[in-house]
Amino acid sequence: MPDRAPQPVDRTLPTEEARDLIALVREIVQREIAPRAAEEEEAGRFPRELFSLLSESGLLGLPYDSEYGGGDQPYAVYLQVLEELAAARLTVGLGVSVHSLACHALANYGTKEQRGEYLAEMLGGGLLGAYCLSEPSSGSDAASLRTKAERDGDDWVITGTKAWITHGGVADFYTVLARSGGEGARGISAFLVPGDAEGLSAAAPEKKMGMKGSPTAQLHFDGVRVPDARRIGDEGQGFAIALSALDSGRLGIAACAIGVAQAALDESLDYATGRRQFGRPIADFQGLRFMLADMATKVEAGRALYLAAARLRDRGLPFSKEAAMAKLFCTDTAMQVATDAVQILGGYGYTADFPVERLMREAKVLQIVEGTNQIQRMVIARHLAGPESR
What we know:
Elements: H1 16-33, H2 37-43, H3 48-56, H4 75-88, H5 90-109, H6 112-124, E1 129-132, E2 148-152, E3 155-166, E4 173-179, E5 188-194, E6 200-202, E7 216-227, E8 231-232, H7 238-274, E9 276-277, E10 280-281, H8 286-314, H9 320-345, H10 356-366, H11 373-385
Parallel strand pairs: 1-4
Antiparallel strand pairs: 2-3, 3-7, 4-5, 5-8, 6-7, 9-10
């Protein structure tokens, strides 16, 4: 059996513009991202210059309105861009997804004046965003968040701590959910906070199992003053805005997960067709052939699932259940495929000389971020059987 180099994913895209877009992404991946991914991840280096390049290339605002500097691309196209980026380096793919999540509130709930003043620079002006919902004591139970926003004339004063913030300490702006009223989901509002606001500081980045190049940090708000003109949506609407953003963000995570899984599958194929034992490639042995077949099937199923959910979103139809299903299935697939890839490479798979050990460590976090997979099962079950009895 001859060596078989993995081929690029054969994508069905709606327009010539979308095909050109994927070609541009692959060119950037091959030239700027993939060659340095392993070295920079090991060193824990955040590739800020790459995000500047992606912004210049129009890749940080793809699913948003061109009137404000976006790319007017369907979500089904944008997600495939994320997949391509994440397959090369998850820090980059996930970073683009988080930036898009941070822009969601303003793009969809901001006033025309707010969008005109802030959105173009957020989408294509070289800025990088972050999304601030989780706190040390409120992760899955996000409606119990404690960070306070207190009215002071025409300003709001924000005090509290946010946790697990991707791009914490390096972002240029933060979409922040804070308690502006009473207890529960209806007491939360959304704010657009500049990264250099007085009283805003970041703790040292967390020391993580994987994605070492992506800073994840607590943010401390010590009386951060924000004008009411930077409040997004109505007072008390913040939690609804957050849930809307998370539905879209979960599709971003699903696409990133399939990118990681595809990369692990490609590495497995490359190794199995080139590695010889007992006089022939190990890909000749039925045990490995069946593993590869299962891995490829799961990757294709995950891709189809996230794209089906994205097409619902593009048509303006409800997609919350489907987004949860895609996030659940795709991230579980990434973990399984990456683990199988380590097994196929054997001892080599357990070393940093080959990328599959990094892919396995990175896949794990995707089962946790933007709603753990246990939360996704709760969301899906509520759509199927209604709310739990109290």
